[in-house]
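ok, trying the design again with the full structure, not the truncated one.
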């Protein structure tokens, strides 16, 4: 059923009518363009393209080099975001972007470009693993079956992919290089002075020579292997650490922040997520925060996506300040160091490493009851609160809640500028993932701190003078006062006086004071956290890492890559009670003892030794961080990519200072995850000299979504959209009234329409045209199966204008168009050519189709046979959009070459310009006449023509003229005296 949902009776009647019409056409017009004819044409041309390698793009060198003349053309690298091969197959919403890039790629070929356009599969992931757990089927078996089904569906759409370049991330010859890149990152460090990654061996040389001091103060030669590994781990771009992570017992794995919903649950499966401290692999993406931020300016991306990345990276300038707490020091980061005099308490994240150190055995004398949470000792209070905080996501913890929670640690810090003792709390609204995991609380000037201070009866001190009438006693305020315009007050000691200063000067003077006393410094902080890179799953890339008996991590030599996944009896990570945060992961790989515990010679001169393999796997994002590079040189077994080939397709050039893919199309939902990770990998590989492009994707385009109506019964359960009936503006399923809401299309919502269905009923070219004609590509739009017929009829009329439906003979005539007799047709033709060309270049496919339809209708209305030049132009114009029928008609018109590589038509400017344009003549702002004039008319001539027009003369009725304003050729405005 369509998304506008005709009744079942209407649908049945319409289907019967279509069948009858088709049967009738077969009898009376055997060569009419029908769904059956379309199916034959499309299958035949798809076979032809495959057999002749029509879409193969030659490299300038290597095993995919080909036609040197083609390789010498300007290049265009056009990519779709990696699809995941779902077992449900495609619905009509999925191919929207694929069809769009195919249309654009075809147009680029026809305008003289060497076009690389292909598609692979992002095939590692949790869905296949979960299916394996349920059925016992190896994830590779189900994944490969899903890929074959998807390949068949995509082929049926006539997509022009270079199939030689396709691959899946699960291919060992592919993930060999994913592992290789991981090892390059593992064996690198970020040099803050050089602002780039460098090999770790260069850092070791600096430590060994004494050029760089070992943090502990000892010499490098004095350190054991384990101690050296510990030092290097603080620098490596890929490192393992014990850190707070998002632990999801229901999935049996940890998750990156980006994989946790705002409700604190897993994106996959909707299980609760907890904070836990586990040893995991991380990528030091934070080292690239500034470059990831700054290089956005040179990218041709939607501003909304750039803004999301900027917000996620979250750069802020401020200062680090040391607060003594007993014998320890707690460092805070603040963007308002000028308000330091107003800090009346501190808050640490519950996970802060110093919490256990500073908590005393008993409550200090005089501790407020409200600070203790009702617990007998600080230790009990902290333990209980930590468990409570672990049950919340970072988003939940930072959300504005009416009730502020926290507990006193029993420790006091010293405000370094005032000397006051300030109590130290833990509270869940402070996160380890931002700053230092500790804040100085200035409750008079921060809303969250104000609410917390009120809840816990903490003091407040005004240090920013309010500009309203509230006064300077925070006890009388309803909320905090925050301003960057007001002056500082109550901020003076024997060594510094901030009173009367503005914020900017106050921050600078405070920073200088902190640095002079050695208790702080100006600094820049980022919201961005290091990327959690471990997953407790089976179906992912194994880490090419082994551990020796001392627990030191060693990289496998390149000769041992790829490290392939072993067979296991149980594919599932051990899952637990979803609500039990106190559990530990158990990975499927850890159960294969023969694979985990191995004797290897790593080629380091120490001979064979016993090692333990890493039993986590890489996240599903790993393979998609670099796949654009594999498309360039997919069969290279010796190098990640041939440098000359990478330079040709992705190297920097005019207008693309950081290089990258020419056009990358995909959903806006990947704004942070995939796009940020891929940018990071590209920058590391660029720094290390493996590629010339510092950015992976130069131009990004986010396509909209094809939506569909979702119907739900009284329980809120989705019911099959195809079985819903519409009666008197209401909707019914099996006699029960149901609600209707426009939303996503999908199997679970029971409203999916497959491309196979539409192709069977109308043909792939019709589906392609309909999806491109529905509206602007970047806007979401509702699906309506009944509206598909409009594009089907366009193709039928086009066919009929060239082919006789009874005889099958071509009906075009060879006579040339006469500029005098056929002027209207010439203008219609060249205006269409000019407009369609501009629209396809700008990816305005809906308006391009409208212009083709207009030209085709013009031809249809003119009696007589269609001139060859018009017919051929029509075929070439529609070829990128409807390639199968274009190939068929091109061949029928007598050509032996493929339309794919034909030149796209170019308009004759003489026929694009209108012969006349309408000029509006106004008197006192009111339209009094409309004149048909030449587009090239001068201001003087247009003024004379307007003033002599009989309607203008009558309207003036002898009145004098004070001023005449002329905007040739479209406006004359007369101001009477």
């Amino acid at each position: 059923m369509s998304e506008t949902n005709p009744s079942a009776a209407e649908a049945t009647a319409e289907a019967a009518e279509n069948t009858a019409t088709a049967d009738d056409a077969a009898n009376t017009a055997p060569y009419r363009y029908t769904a059956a004819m379309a199916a034959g044409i499309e299958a035949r041309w798809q076979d032809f393209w495959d057999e002749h390698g029509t879409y193969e793009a030659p490299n300038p060198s290597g095993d995919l080099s080909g036609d040197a003349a083609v390789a010498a053309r300007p290049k265009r690298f056009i990519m779709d975001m990696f699809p995941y091969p779902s077992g449900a197959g495609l619905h009509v919403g999925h191919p929207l972007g694929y069809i769009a890039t195919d249309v654009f790629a075809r147009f680029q070929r026809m305008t003289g470009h060497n076009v690389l356009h292909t598609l692979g599969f992002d095939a590692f992931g949790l869905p296949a693993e979960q299916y394996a757990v349920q059925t016992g089927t190896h994830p590779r078996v189900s994944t490969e079956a899903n890929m074959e089904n998807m390949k068949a569906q995509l082929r049926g759409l006539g997509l022009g992919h270079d199939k030689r370049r396709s691959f899946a991330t699960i291919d060992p010859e592919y993930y060999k290089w994913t592992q290789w890149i991981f090892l390059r990152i593992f064996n690198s460090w970020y040099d803050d002075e050089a602002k780039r990654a460098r090999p770790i061996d260069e850092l070791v040389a600096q430590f060994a020579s004494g050029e760089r001091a070992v943090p502990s103060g000892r010499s490098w030669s004095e350190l054991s292997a384990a101690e050296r590994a510990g030092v290097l781990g603080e620098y490596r771009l890929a490192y393992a650490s014990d850190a707070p992570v998002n632990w999801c017992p229901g999935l049996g794995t940890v998750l990156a922040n980006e994989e946790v919903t705002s409700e604190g649950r897993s994106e996959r499966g909707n299980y609760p997520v907890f904070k836990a401290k586990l040893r995991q692999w991380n990528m030091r993406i934070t080292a690239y925060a500034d470059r990831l931020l700054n290089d956005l300016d040179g990218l041709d991306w939607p501003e909304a996506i750039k803004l999301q990345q900027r917000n996620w990276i979250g750069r802020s300038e401020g200062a680090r300040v040391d607060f003594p707490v007993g014998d320890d020091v707690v460092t805070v980061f603040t963007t308002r160091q000028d308000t330091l005099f107003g800090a009346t308490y501190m808050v640490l994240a519950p996970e802060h490493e110093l919490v256990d150190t500073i908590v005393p055995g008993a409550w200090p004398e005089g501790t407020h009851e409200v600070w203790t949470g009702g617990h007998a000792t600080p230790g009990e209070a902290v333990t209980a609160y930590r468990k409570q905080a672990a049950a919340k996501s970072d988003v939940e913890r930072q959300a504005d809640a009416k009730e502020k929670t926290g507990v006193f640690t029993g420790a006091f810090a010293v405000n370094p500028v005032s000397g006051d003792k300030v109590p130290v709390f833990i509270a869940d609204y402070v996160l380890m993932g931002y700053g230092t995991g500790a804040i100085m609380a200035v409750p008079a000037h921060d809303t969250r701190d104000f609410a917390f201070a009120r809840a816990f009866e903490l003091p407040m001190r005004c240090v920013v003078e309010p500009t309203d009438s509230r006064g300077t006693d925070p006890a009388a305020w309803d909320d905090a006062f925050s301003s960057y315009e007001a002056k500082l007050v109550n901020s003076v000691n024997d060594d510094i006086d901030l009173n009367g200063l503005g914020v900017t000067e106050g921050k600078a003077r405070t920073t200088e004071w902190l640095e002079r006393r050695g208790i702080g410094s100006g600094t820049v902080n980022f919201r961005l956290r290091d990327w959690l890179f471990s997953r407790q799953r089976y179906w992912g890339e194994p880490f090419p890492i082994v551990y020796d008996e001392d627990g030191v991590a060693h990289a496998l030599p390149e000769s041992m890559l790829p490290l392939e996944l072993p067979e296991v009896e149980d594919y599932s990570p051990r899952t637990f009670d979803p609500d039990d945060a106190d559990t530990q992961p158990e990975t499927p790989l850890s159960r294969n003892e023969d694979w985990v515990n191995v004797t290897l010679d790593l080629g380091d001169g120490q001979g064979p030794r016993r090692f333990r393999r890493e039993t986590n796997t890489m996240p599903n994002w790993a393979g998609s961080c670099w796949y654009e590079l594999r498309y360039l040189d997919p069969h290279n077994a010796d190098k990640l990519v041939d440098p000359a080939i990478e330079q040709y397709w992705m190297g920097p050039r005019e207008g693309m200072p950081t290089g990258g893919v020419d056009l990358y199309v995909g959903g806006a939902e990947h704004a942070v995850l995939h796009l940020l990770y891929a940018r990071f990998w590209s920058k590391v590989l660029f720094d290390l000299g493996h590629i010339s492009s510092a950015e992976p994707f130069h131009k990004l385009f986010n396509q909209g979504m094809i939506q569909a109506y979702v119907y739900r019964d009284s329980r809120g359960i989705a019911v099959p959209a195809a079985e819903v009936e519409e009666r008197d503006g209401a909707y019914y399923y099996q006699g029960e009234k149901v609600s209707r809401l426009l939303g996503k299309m999908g199997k679970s919502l029971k409203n999916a329409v497959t491309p196979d269905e539409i192709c069977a009923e109308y043909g792939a070219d019709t589906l392609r045209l309909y999806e491109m004609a529905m509206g602007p590509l970047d806007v979401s739009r509702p699906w309506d199966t009944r509206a598909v017929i409009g594009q089907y009829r366009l193709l039928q009329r086009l066919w009929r204008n060239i082919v006789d439906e009874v005889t099958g003979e071509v009906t075009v005539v060879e006579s040339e168009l006469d500029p005098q007799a056929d002027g209207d047709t010439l203008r219609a033709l060249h205006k269409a050519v000019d407009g369609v060309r501009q629209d396809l270049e700008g990816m305005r496919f809906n308006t391009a189709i409208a212009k083709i339809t207009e030209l085709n209708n013009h031809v249809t209305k003119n009696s007589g046979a269609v001139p060859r030049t018009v017919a051929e132009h029509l075929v070439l114009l529609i070829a990128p959009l409807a390639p199968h029928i274009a190939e068929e008609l091109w061949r029928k018109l007598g050509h032996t070459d493929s339309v794919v590589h034909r030149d796209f038509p170019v308009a004759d400017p003489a026929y694009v310009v209108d012969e006349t344009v309408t000029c509006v003549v106004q008197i006192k702002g009111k339209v009094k006449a409309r004149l048909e004039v030449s587009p090239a008319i001068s201001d003087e001539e247009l003024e004379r023509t307007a003033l002599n027009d009989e309607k203008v003369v009558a309207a003036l009725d002898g009145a004098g003229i004070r001023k005449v304003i002329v905007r040739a050729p479209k406006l004359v405005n007369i101001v009477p005296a």
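Keeping the full-length input from now on. Residues 8-28 form the longest helix (21 residues).
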